[in-house]
Amino acid sequence: MGSGKPVILSIPHHLSRLFLPTPKFSRHPASREDATNYTLHIRLSINKFAAQKIKKHTRKQSCPHFRPWYILKMFYQRDLVKKPARTCKAPLGKTIEHQESDPMKQADFQKVVDPEKKTVQCLLCAHQCKIKENSRGICQVRENRAGTLNSLVYGRLVSENVDPIEKKPLFHMLPGTLSYSIATVGCNFRCLHCQNYNISQYPRMHGGEVPGTSRSPEQVVTAARQHGCHSISYTYIEPTVFFEFAYETAVLAREVGIRNVFVSNGYTSPEATRKIAPYLDANNIDLKAFTDKFYHEVCGAKLAPVLETICLMRELCVWVEVTTLIIPGWNDSDRELRDIANFIKQVDPDMPWHVSRFHPAYKMTDRPATPVTTIYRARDIGLAAGLKYVYVGNMAAGMGEDTVCPTCGKAVIHRQGFQVISQNLKGAACGHCHGPIAGIF
């Protein structure tokens, strides 16, 4: 534990500017037993209100290796000034027409906010959409029918692939194994540079249409086993939007010894995070930038919930790796990269950071691909900040893909692209010096 003195970072003005002593993890927690209580001390400082309040929260500790530490608790300006939640309309401003035969499943995490008008609020993600009857949320795949919120994508898969786990990217989760990867359409972000916009934005681009091949959780788990996959990845779009199907599949997968992986934008609500965490082994979370300007203008979201999800996932013993796609002119300054690295270190210095190269895509074609020198500069910043594992991505094979032992400095996993060439691990230890290597091996 550190001295307890706050570390001040440059983060958006409406967030607490407090990061406190670094948590210590010698390895990925292997158990959720022997729970202990711990106290979170929260300090809040919000822009013009100049407010500061301390709150104590005593919660049941779910991870025996997770030592008591001060954790950043995100508050939003709406905690002090109540603003009306955004009301969502049907795509293209039209009333949604549907048939009784349309496949759907009652959604989790909802509440009725206006019984007379049959308005419901979706509590699945940080948008907290208030949805009128016959309308959908921002994700375009959760619809209010007669005052009940329904998922339109339960079991409607548009992508099923067998991928190397390194493609997620996850470098410290069963390296060299295969992952059965699935997705539906829809997303709660609208990123201008989305590489998978053809499925993430499909309902928005096609008048609300929700395509997909019908699959059951049992069929997905069976397919994963038949293809020799050690895990199932819920990926390509934000998996939170098909939460009900992902959750039921994850429960079945866990029963037969298959791991579960999210590749996420981190906008999952705390309630949904706590529900999926017991069945989720790893989560690669995009920390796209460290400013609200980026999240608002590029993604249609906010930074704070993403930071909170990273903290909460790790607290709940989910193995987390972070990815940042570095875009010229948007998030490539030394200051912003240093702030991202410092944030990750405060959560866990063993948490891998993937710094990836941007290539023009979708609606962001006004800037060039990220210079290779920028990617290596970001990697150097992460290592200098004290992160033990920093990797480069979206580049031709070169330096920055190997896992190096933080104790002796020798490579323990040699990679080329998404392929593991060689490993020198003994369990979760370096084969050279027997020093610990964090992750799931």
Structure in words:
The protein is an alpha/beta fold and 441 residues long. The chain folds into two domains: 87-151, no CATH class; 156-430, Aldolase class I (TIM Barrel, Alpha-Beta Barrel). 20% of the residues lie in helices and 24% in strands. The protein is built from nine helices and 24 strands. The protein has helices spanning 197-200, 202-205, 217-226, 243-255, 270-276, 292-299, 304-315, 334-347, 372-385, and strands at 37-46, 51-60, 87-88, 105-106, 110-114, 119-122, 130-131, 142-145, 148-151, 156-157, 159-164, 178-183, 213-214, 231-234, 259-264, 282-286, 319-326, 353-357, 390-393, 403-404, 411-416, 419-423, 425-426, 429-430. The strands form seven sheets. Strands 11-12-14-15-16-17-18-19 form an eight-stranded mixed beta sheet. Strands 3-7-6-5 form a four-stranded mixed beta sheet, with no helix packed on it. Strand 15, helix 5 (270-276) and strand 16 form a beta-alpha-beta unit. Helix 3 (217-226) packs across helix 4. It is globular, with a radius of gyration of 21 Å.
Helix and strand arrangement:
Layout: E1 37-46, E2 51-60, E3 87-88, E4 105-106, E5 110-114, E6 119-122, E7 130-131, E8 142-145, E9 148-151, E10 156-157, E11 159-164, E12 178-183, H1 197-200, H2 202-205, E13 213-214, H3 217-226, E14 231-234, H4 243-255, E15 259-264, H5 270-276, E16 282-286, H6 292-299, H7 304-315, E17 319-326, H8 334-347, E18 353-357, H9 372-385, E19 390-393, E20 403-404, E21 411-416, E22 419-423, E23 425-426, E24 429-430
Parallel strand pairs: 3-7, 12-14, 14-15, 15-16, 16-17, 17-18, 18-19
Antiparallel strand pairs: 1-2, 4-9, 5-6, 6-7, 8-9, 10-13, 11-12, 20-21, 21-22, 23-24
Helix pairs in contact: 3-4, 8-9
